[in-house]
Amino acid sequence: MLDEVYSARILDLAGNIGRLGRLEAPDATATRRAPLCGSTITVDIGMDGDVVADYAHEVKACALGQAAAAVMANEVVGATAAELRQVRDEMRAMLEEGAPPPAGRFGDLRHLEPVRDFKARHASTMLVFEAVVACLDAVAARAGRG
């Protein structure tokens, strides 16, 4: 069953993470850490209104955290804050409640569906989503919308 979690597609995503590094002048930065395994992700985000205009991250995570971060990096620029909050909620529901995986631009997250059977791996899989939403919250708070 663990073979399903660490599928060839997950390992491919984990080995090909885009947007690595840091932004020079981000609108917000957030770091999230999974206490159980020590995986850590730091996200920098640049916004143009309610849309992500730029993004970078440092990823020191297991293959599952890396795969989730890779999908985020591939799809985040051009996404709205609402879309990103929705994908975070859909991922949480997929892992914790057995809901279907996200679709559309974040459809590659379906490859992480087998993780739902391994509760100890949920936190590392969710890191990038929690960090992105923390950035969105910080931007909204500064704009008086939080």
Radius of gyration: 14 Å
Number of helices in the DSSP assignment: 5
- Tell me the structural class: alpha+beta
Order of strands across the biggest sheet? 1-2-3
- The arrangement of helices and strands along the chain is HHEEEHHH
The amount of beta strand, in percent, is 15-25%
Low-pLDDT windows of residues: none
Number of beta strands: 3
Shape annotation: globular
**Roughly how much helix do the residues carry, as a percent range?**
40-55%
Biggest sheet record: 3 strands, antiparallel
* N-to-C span: 42 Å
Q: What is the averaged pLDDT score?
A: 95
Structure in words:
Helix 3 (63-75) packs parallel to helix 5. The protein is globular. The termini are far apart. The protein is built from 5 helices and 3 strands; from the N terminus they run H-H-E-E-E-H-H-H. Strand 1 (28-33) and strand 2 (40-48) form a beta hairpin. The chain is an alpha+beta fold. The model has no long low-confidence stretch (mean pLDDT 95). Strands 1-2-3 form a 3-stranded antiparallel beta sheet, covered by helices on one side. The chain has helices spanning 2-5, 8-14, 63-75, 81-97, 122-142; strands at 28-33, 40-48, 51-60.
Topology of this structure?
Elements: H1 2-5, H2 8-14, E1 28-33, E2 40-48, E3 51-60, H3 63-75, H4 81-97, H5 122-142
